[in-house]
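Page 47, continued from p. 46.
Same chain as before, 594 aa.
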Amino acid sequence: MRLLLLCLLLFAPLPLAAQQATDALAPEEPSALLATAARPETRAALEAKAAGRPVAARQWMVAAAHPLATQAGADTLRAGGNAADALVAVQAVLGLVEPQSSGLGGGGFLLYHEAASGRLFTLDGRETAPLAATPRLMQDASGRPLEFFDAVLGGRAVGVPGTPALMAEAHGRWGRLPWAEVLAPAIRLAEEGFAVSPRLAGLVAGDAARLARFPATAAYFLPEGRPLRAGDRLTNPAYAATLRALAEGGAAAFYRGPVAEAIVAAVQGAPGNPGAMTLADLAAYRVKERAPVCTPYREAEVCGMGPPSSGGVGVAQILGLLARHDLARLAPDSPEALRLVGDATRLAFADRGRYLADADFVPVPVKGLLAADYLAARGRLLDRADALPEVAPGAPAFDHALLWGDAPARERPGTSHVTIVDAEGNVAAMTASIENAFGARLMAAGFLLNNQLTDFDFESHAGGRPLANAPAPGKRPRSSMAPTIVYRDGAPAFALGSPGGSRIIPYVARAVVALLDWGLDPQEAAALPHALNRFGAYDLERGTSAEAFVPTLTALGYETQVADMISGLAIVAITPEGLLGGADPRREGVALGD
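Result:
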């Protein structure tokens, strides 16, 4: 019977997907997405995801945040492409069909396991501040920090985009198919049109007042003055033209010439809140290769992205603090598991707020924060029966430990994640973002521009000390994006990541615990109800069994709050029997494999 079930899994035309319509609306039925996913394999994936089953495959797997994007990646792999080719195809389509989350106007981080060499590469495509940026970038004329949306809407918060350069860098290093060929699916969809999904329609309706502020944005998302509706056929000739320019001229066609000029005009000409980006800022942009951040956990090694992302360090610290506790004997919803994971995350976030920033501009004690003796000492704080009454940053080995002040996270959800494993064993995990949903609400050349500069601290000092994450010319703002690859015996065993603002770190850390300690499959791990604690209050996911944890957590000494938590986990497990894929039921994502 077990062999029969395994064969059914491996040869069924599965993949995954279902949906939760918008960040603020109730979940949609899987059938609501069928207009955007007419292929039989994708329909099967939607049904599998709704039933809580992982997708199984023998050769390759693609998990992304929208069925049309996943299909583009699957078609690319079937055409002889590899993980890098599929990554470009998927991201180009995501920028069209899920424009509120990521796209050419944003940035991202990529982990790429190269099967031929066995090496892990981490590429930083994070946005940069323009050369005119100062530490007071997010303050008014009197030096007071701006309100969040006063900073977001317009050109002030737009960083120099990194996604096009990241796509080109990945393809140039590892791609096999012609560059123009992997961009072709997105060009075709932009010209021929696609059905607006329920989630995009719900988000447009909920943000209509802000989208209406800028004419080009309003014309696209609010045609004839009304928000797009689910099922509307939407074309984007301007986006197609930009992709054609990229197909012919490479990334240089984005950072110089008409596209760059359109970006600068939109940023500098934003009414009421212009930015200072110039053509020179765009021309100077470069992707940077960073050292991976890896930590042992159980029998595995968990690897992620280093600064300017805090994701790799944050996930590694949480796991390092938990390593001395036997979580495998605890149920995910047990009081002890909730306390341990919640307070380990609080300790990691306290360190994050003080120490994590762009290491090209400030000293960052990555080794000290992940040192075994440091984590052991911090981990002993968890040896208690109730909640930690307060949490403060630790003192890792670091020459500048007393230099920095402390600041909270401001990141908002407006992000996407892609996980791909190809037939050769190459693995790509990329998280990309325009920060807040719809970014700065500015459009240029067919795509939205990011508001990533609001990920900098709005104040330059706290408690008389400078802040490590204060703005500076050319600096990259701190991020929580946490693309992750888990290794066993030197080979990839899992690849995953999620959107979700600063909640990304606990989303990913808890998913790793679910996979390695609790033995959940990728779909079960993606669907696990969220219960997380970053800053002292325990966040419990609205509409799930996590709401029932309130009395338990209150008795342990926590303040609790029930909230919508729209993660977007995309998880692929690499096993001796084949691949298993899972896609978060809270979004429209789907996993497809052969």
